[in-house]
Amino acid sequence: MDRKEKEKIIAGLKERLGRACGTFLVDYQGLNVEALTKLRRDFREANVEFQVVKNRLLSIASRDTDVAVLKDYFAGPCALAITYDDVAMPAKVLTKFIQDYEALEIKIGQINGKVVELPAIKRLAQLPSREVLLSQVLFSISYVPTSFVRILSEMLRRLVNVLEAIKTQKA
After folding, report:
1. Residue 110: beta bridge partners?
2. Domain with 110 in it: what CATH number?
3. What is the tens place of the pLDDT at every residue in 139-155?
4. CB atoms within 10 A of CB 39
5. What is the residue range of 51's domain?
6. pLDDT in tens, 27-41
7. Is the same domain home to 25 and 39?
8. Number of domains observed in the structure of the chain
9. Torsion of Cα atoms, 100 then 103 then 104 then 106, to 10°
10. Lowest mean pLDDT: which of 80-89, 105-114, 142-151?
11. Residue pair 80/25 in contact by the 8 Å Cβ criterion
12. Distance from C-alpha of 171 to C-alpha of 39, rounded to nearest angstrom
């Protein structure tokens, strides 16, 4: 590659890393072409970018971004999984893929500038999807007022029943 191509790659990568809310660094050494193609397809379906990057270019592009915290791990064959919205999705894809292909190794990850080690990535993969979590929060928020209204109406119903019983008793 000539210098202009490298600068173009670095600029594009820096822009994407600046927008990313989460990135995961993986070692893909030992995967055959078929497995790597399957991994790319799984990431594409999950709306996650996956790119094999030279360490030197990645090091330059990651400066002044959240990914800079991972610079010590840019060694050996590296590929980068980049997500812009749901940080649990790449972790889910990677942990599921590792069950079938043990050659893939998750090196490290970062979420909003904070380093995430392998055990935390595995826990992150066990979380429900973003939509499920949002629906659980919405249910929790709506549950309290609904229960309050139900209790108030039950108290009024009981009062009416008591008054009705007094009325029939006097009649």
Report:
1. 23, 115
2. 3.30.70.1730
3. 888 888 888 888 888 99
4. 22
5. 3-127
6. 988 889 999 999 999
7. yes
8. 2
9. 110
10. 142-151
11. yes
12. 80
In whole angstroms, what is the distance from residue 129 CA to residue 35 CA?
Answer: 25
Tokens matching residue 105? 């190794």
Which sign does the torsion angle of CA 119, 15, 77, 90 carry? positive
For 94, residues 6+ apart whose C-beta sits below 8 A from its C-beta are 24, 26, 81, 104, 106, 121, 125
Are residues 61 and 143 located together in one domain of the fold?
A: no
28: left (phi over 0), alpha (psi -120 to 50) or beta: alpha
Query: Which position has the token pair 């190794």?
Result: 105
Claim to verify: residue 122 and residue 155 sit in the same structural domain: no
Residue of 55, 66, 65 whose CA lies nearest to 27: 55
Domain match, 91 and 75 both: yes
Answer yes or no: are the C-beta atoms of 97 and 39 closer than 8 Å: yes
Q: Quote the Cα angle for 17-22-26, to 5°.
A: 90
Torsion of CA 61, 124, 32, 54, to 10 degrees: 10
Task: Note whether 82 and 116 are same-domain residues.
Answer: yes
pLDDT at position 160 over 80: yes
SS3 130: helix
Query: From residue 56, how far is each of 51, 133, 159 by CA, in Å?
Result: 14, 38, 77
